[in-house]
């Protein structure tokens, strides 16, 4: 009997050791420098509040940590869209002026592999910038670092809260350099294929309500026609 | 007994790793796709949106009935020409399979109507509509970009409003019908 108990205890300790090792493995989920941070092309920088209640609209299955906003918005409770969120928000430029509106759909990705530090989300943005045009952004986001550096510490905190400064580039694809694919829709972007990156800066996170203070940022690298001309 | 404990630890690590590797962390629900072959090539698929029950958001400046009622649509003058609606999207069997955004904007005096259709288990499609309605009251647009399942497809999507004539008590006021035709993009020929 005591051998069986020792084996069960060992199994539990082994499972716990693996969970701790996988969560804090320094070799997975590393946040590298955003490739657009060193771009020589013109980059459009758009900011938005990552706090759901500060946007125009946010909805999910209604059972998640983050409450839908406004309160009476239709919830995405059907089986096919239960793991999806929809958001509409105003986008601000570098001078903090309203620059446009963004609509984002995000769904948990079936390519998620926690064992290799990939907590993936497939998302698309539709961005309207008055006077300039519109773009469609396709990306895969990796929330592993966010989970490890913000969510887990919040759960470990006696106040169920994490505060600090965390900045991370969420985009992990489909571009080889962890960039999003940006398709120009109309206006000055029409016909362009560009690169983009979405990042988050978090200052406070609570276990019961999720993000308390955070800002999101979309960076879109404009096509540099001069480079194309030089090649031709 | 200590050896048994150590063996248990190793087995626990192996079992946890195996479970994490083998059991999918995310499993999106899939409705069976109802795709048929179009007469002149490509595949066709139809979706619809029951109005008003599938409308998630209706926003725009000067809109008399915003949805949801508490929606605080931005009143900045530069957004005066922009409006957006969000919907749940149903397949031909009336099952919800995704969500979609329909936006209306003005650029250089011309009306721009765009759709983004997001099907979580399959991917997303971005469609730019021709704002001028065709004979019969429908609009046609081109698929400009797609993700995952739709990444290699081009084609067209039409939108049409169909009023309900059933007279049933709980029937919707009508439906927005979206008919998509997907055509595979030609692969570039290999350089010999």
3D architecture notes:
The complex is a heterodimer of chains A (232) and B (192). Chain A has 232 residues and is α+β, with helices and mostly antiparallel strands. Chain A has a single domain (40-231), classed as AOC barrel-like, CATH 2.40.480. Chain A contains three helices and eleven strands. In chain A, strands 1, 2, 3, 4, 5, 6, 7, 8, 9, 10 and 11 form an eleven-stranded antiparallel β-sheet that branches. In chain A, a hairpin with a 5-residue loop joins strand 3 and strand 4 (98-108). Chain A is globular. The model of chain A is unreliable at 226-232 (pLDDT under 50). By secondary structure, chain B is mainly β. Chain B is built from one helix and ten strands; from the N terminus they run αββββββββββ. Chain B has one helix spanning 2-22; strands at residues 35-37, 43-51, 55-60, 83-90, 96-107, 110-119, 123-129, 139-146, 153-163, 174-184. Chain B has a ten-stranded antiparallel β-sheet, with no helix packed on it. Chain B is extended. The mean pLDDT of chain B is 90. Chains A and B meet through helix 1, strand 3, strand 4, strand 5 and strand 6 of A and helix 1, strand 3, strand 4, strand 5 and strand 6 of B.
């Amino acid at each position: 009997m005591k051998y069986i108990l020792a084996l069960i205890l060992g199994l539990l300790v082994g499972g716990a050791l693996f969970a701790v090792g996988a969560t804090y493995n320094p070799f997975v989920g590393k946040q590298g420098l955003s490739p657009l941070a060193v771009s020589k092309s013109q980059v459009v920088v758009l900011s938005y509040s990552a706090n759901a209640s500060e946007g125009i609209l946010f909805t999910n299955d209604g059972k998640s940590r983050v409450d839908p906003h406004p309160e009476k918005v239709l919830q995405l409770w059907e089986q096919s869209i239960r793991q999806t969120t929809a958001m509409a928000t105003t986008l601000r430029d570098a001078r903090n002026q309203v620059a446009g509106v963004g609509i984002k759909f995000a769904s948990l990705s079936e390519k998620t592999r926690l064992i290799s530090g990939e907590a993936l989300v497939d998302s698309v943005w539709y961005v309207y910038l008055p006077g300039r045009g519109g773009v469609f952004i396709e990306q895969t986001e990796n929330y592993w670092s966010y989970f490890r550096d913000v969510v887990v510490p919040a759960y470990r905190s006696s106040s169920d809260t994490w505060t600090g400064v965390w900045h991370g580039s969420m985009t992990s694809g489909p571009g080889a350099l962890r960039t999003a694919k940006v398709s120009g829709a109309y206006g000055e972007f029409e016909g362009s294929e560009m690169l983009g990156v979405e990042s988050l800066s978090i200052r406070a996170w609570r276990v019961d309500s999720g993000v308390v203070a955070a800002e999101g940022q979309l960076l879109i690298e404009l096509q540099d026609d001069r480079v194309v001309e030089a090649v031709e | 007994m200590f050896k048994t404990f150590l063996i248990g630890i190793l087995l626990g690590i192996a079992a946890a790793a195996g479970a994490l590797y083998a059991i999918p962390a995310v499993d999106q629900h899939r409705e069976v796709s109802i795709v048929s072959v179009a007469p002149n090539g490509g595949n066709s698929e139809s979706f619809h949106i029951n109005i008003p029950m599938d409308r998630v958001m209706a926003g725009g400046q000067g809109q008399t009935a915003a949805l949801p009622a508490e929606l605080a649509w931005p009143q900045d003058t530069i957004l005066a020409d922009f409006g957006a609606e969000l919907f749940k999207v149903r397949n031909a069997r009336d099952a919800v399979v995704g969500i979609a955004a329909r936006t209306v904007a003005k650029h250089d005096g011309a009306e721009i109507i765009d759709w983004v259709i997001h099907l979580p288990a399959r991917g997303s499609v971005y469609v730019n509509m021709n704002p001028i309605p065709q004979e019969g009251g429908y609009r046609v647009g081109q698929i400009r970009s797609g993700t995952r399942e739709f990444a290699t497809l081009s084609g067209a999507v039409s939108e049409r409003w169909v009023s309900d004539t059933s007279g049933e008590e709980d029937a919707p006021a009508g439906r927005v019908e979206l008919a998509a035709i997907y055509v595979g993009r030609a692969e570039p020929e290999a350089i010999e």
